Amino acid sequence: MDTKPGIIKVLQAVAGEPITPQDDESLFDSGLLDSFALPDFVSGLEEEFNVKIPDSDLSARKFDTIEKVQGYLANKGVA
User: Fold this and answer.
1) 11 to each of 19, 38, how far by Cα in Å?
2) For the chain, which residues make up each domain, given as ranges?
3) 3-class secondary-structure state, position 7
4) Phi, psi (5° rounding) for residue 5?
5) What is the predicted pLDDT for the residue at 52?
6) What span, in angstroms and rounded, lies between the C-alpha atoms of 59 and 55?
7) What class is the 4-75 domain?
8) DSSP string spanning the chain?
9) Which of 9, 10, 36, 71 is the most exposed place for a label (fewest CB within 10 A)?
10) pLDDT for the residue 34
11) CB atoms within 10 A of CB 29
């Protein structure tokens, strides 16, 4: 399963606008996400991919780029 379209869908819902970040672009440095939006983004990922993300994993480092999000989801068994 290619997770990128679902990740983009969740990002767009959180950002409230159409976006197309590069796979290695920092979602935080670019302003697409911030510490206040991270919980909404993670909640959206949980719903989109039917996966549980523990609060202890809420870290900008783990969700900073689309590539990192894809890797995280793959480690959770979403592929």
Assistant:
1) 8, 10
2) 4-75
3) helix
4) -60, -40
5) 97
6) 9
7) mainly alpha
8) ---HHHHHHHHHHHHTS-----TTS-TTTTTS--TTTHHHHHHHHHHHHT----GGG--TTTTSSHHHHHHHHHHTT--
9) 36
10) 94
11) 11
Place of tokens 């523990």: 54
Q: Write down the residue that tokens 């409230």 correspond to.
A: 16
Q: What is the pLDDT along the chain (79 residues), one digit of tens a residue?
A: 799 999 999 999 999 989 989 999 999 999 999 999 999 999 999 999 999 999 999 999 999 999 999 999 999 999 7
User: What is the pLDDT at residue 68?
Assistant: 98
- Which residue's structure tokens are 């379209």? 5
Q: Write the single-letter amino acid at 78.
A: V
Main-chain dihedrals φ then ψ at residue 48, nearest 5 degrees: -65, -40
Q: What is the DSSP letter of 49?
A: H
Residues 63 and 33: beta-carbon distance below 8 Å: yes
- What DSSP designation does 30 have? T
